[in-house]
Structure formats: structure tokens, C-alpha cells
Amino acid sequence: MFDWIPLPYYTPVFYNTMLVVIVLAALQLFTKGYVIQNPNKKEYASILLLILVTFYLGLRPVSGRYFGDMGMYNYEFEHYAKGGEIFKSRDFVWNVFMKFCSSIMSAKLFFLLCATLYILPLYLACKKWLGKDSYFLFLMFVASFSFWAYGINGIRNGIATSLFVLALTYYKKRYIQFSLLAISYFIHGSMLIPLAAFVLTLFYKNPKYYLLGWLLAIPLSLAFGSFIENIFLSLGISDQRVSYLTMSEFDDQFSSLGFRWDFLVYSAAAIYAGYYFIIKLKFKDKIYIQLFNIYVTANAFWILVIRASFSNRFAYLSWFLMAIIIFYPFFKQQFFKQQQKVLAYLVLAYFGFTYFMFLII
């Protein structure tokens, strides 16, 4: 469907199209606000965004050169399609899923299905949280810094995190929530980190203590970073995700190693947003407080291992929640006199960082 787009331009087309969409969304906020006279317009916009992004991402040509690990996923799919045995790993749900798909569909349809499983849960989560006001939050998910990368490269991780987000909406139906959380873990074992953060929030709810823990993680990482990484390795966890802590052969793929102050500042944007809404403005939404506590906990873990190669993959285990942390409160309560204009500036700034990183990377 999109094979006519040359591979070197496939990703730029996405980001530049999103730039136009974001600017139009910001202009709408500046002029009309997010309360549109016909609420169905927002519903249509959400569905259109869902369909277009899913098909564009899912029907991309198979390429490991331009789409990262897509080549590896295609290799594994072809292995199963030829009757190969299921790979042994803790991520057995993913392996069984890929084996099943290889018996009934082509690789092209498989990647479209993966895109659907990545994007649809985000749409459903936004709709469950905000109803017909879900368009801007869903748009911010798509506009997030890591969205495209985890749709084309970290495919399995992206699907797992999206199911995790959807699970968080089922707080009144724990059996559905726990089932989705379990599936997300057995799709990608790294979900143990946000899953552990979720369990912690069931028992400890005060965001002030989570904030203190996050702040404490910074000097601990500066002083004892390597020692902390070795502790995790000594626990006997030897799967691929934890091996990223000590791999050095990929160092040249990063603009800089060591303590990533740039990524820390980026992560702190959501930390400050949560602090501002919960502590300063006394926003008491229980759902938001739990989401914030999960983000803070998972991000603090990343800070402890921030020097590792591929530490961005650990950062993603909190970053996938950033859109909710920053934008969710705007649709639940009036905080500012011209709230829609504040939201417009944030929308531009949020995607501005994403677009800037696209340009320099």
C-alpha cells in the first residue's frame, strides 16, 4: 500500500506529516479550545488517526536496515513459517503468537497485526479514560519521542507496553487487569520493571515518597552506578534485557555514554508535571496518582542503570507513560484561566522535542 514511498523517506514522511497534524491541533486549541461544538468530530478524528497510523506503520516494507529489528522479526517469522521449533524463552506468549501467525498469514499481515496490537490498545485506553475527549491524548501518544521507534524496531516491547497501558484502565475489573499484565510480561520480560512498580502502587500510594525515591536515585547512580549494575547481574537474571547493562559492542550507536543528563532532563519533564498537578495544584485523581507513581518508580530504576549501553530501552519502560502524565489532568479539571492555550503550548513543546530528536538522529 505504501511501497511507493522510497525506504529512506519512509520515516521522514511520518514525522513531517505528524508535524502538520500537531500544528493544526495546536491552532485548533488556540482558536476553539478542545471543547468542540460537535463532540463526534473528536471521535471521528481519533478513529481516522488510529486507522491511518496503524496502516502506515503496519504496511511498511520489510527492512532491517531502515526499521531496526524488523529484519530479525521477519527472520524468526520465516523460521516458524518453514516449520521451525518454538524458541525457548520466558517470553513464550510472544513465541506461540508468532508461531501461530506464521501458519495462517504472510509476514506482511503479521506486521500489520503487530501494529494494530501496538496502537489499538492506546486508543482504547484513551477512550476509556476520557471518552470523546480522547483525541488529544491519543495524538500525544503518537507524537511521543519513542512511539515510532517501538512500532518499527522494538516491536515486541511496544506491544507489551501498550497492553500494560490498557490494563491500567481496568482498575474496576481486576481479573481483566491482571490477565493483561501477565500477557504483557510474557510478551516481553522487561515488563517486570513497570509490573513491579504497579504492584508497589497497590500498597504505597503517597506520591511524595515516590518523588523522594526518584531524587535519591540520582546521587546513588552518580556514586554507585557500576556497583548497582553488578548487583542486578549477580541476581542471576541473564536474559537479553539485562545483558544490555554490560554490552559495550554497541557503544558507537549512541551520541554519548555515561550519565545521560539529556535523557534525565527529558524524563524530569513528566516528573515535574506530576509534581505540579498533584503537589502544587492538589489534583486528587486516584488513577492519575497511580500512573504517576508507576512512572516515577520505573524511571528511578532506569536512573540507577543509566550508564549502560541501550539504557534507552530501560528508559522506555517509563517513557511510554509520559503522554498520560503530562496531558491527562488537562481533560479532568480546570487549572488555568486559558487552559486550552496552555495545552496548545505543551502540545507544540512535546512534539517539538520529538521532531528535534528526529532531525539530529
Explain this structure to me?
This protein is mostly helical. The protein folds into 2 domains: about 1-185, no CATH class; about 190-320, no CATH class. The protein has 17 helices and no strands. The protein starts with 6 loop residues before the first helix and ends with a helix. Residues about 235-255 have low confidence and may be disordered.
Number of domains: 2
Which percent range fits the helix content?
55-70%
Mean pLDDT: 88
Question: Terminal Cα separation, in Å?
Answer: 27 Å
Describe the structure concisely for a colleague.
The chain has helices at 7-31, 40-58, 70-81, 92-102, 107-130, 135-142, 149-152, 155-168, 174-187, 192-203, 207-234, 240-243, 261-280, 286-304, 311-319, 322-327, 339-360.
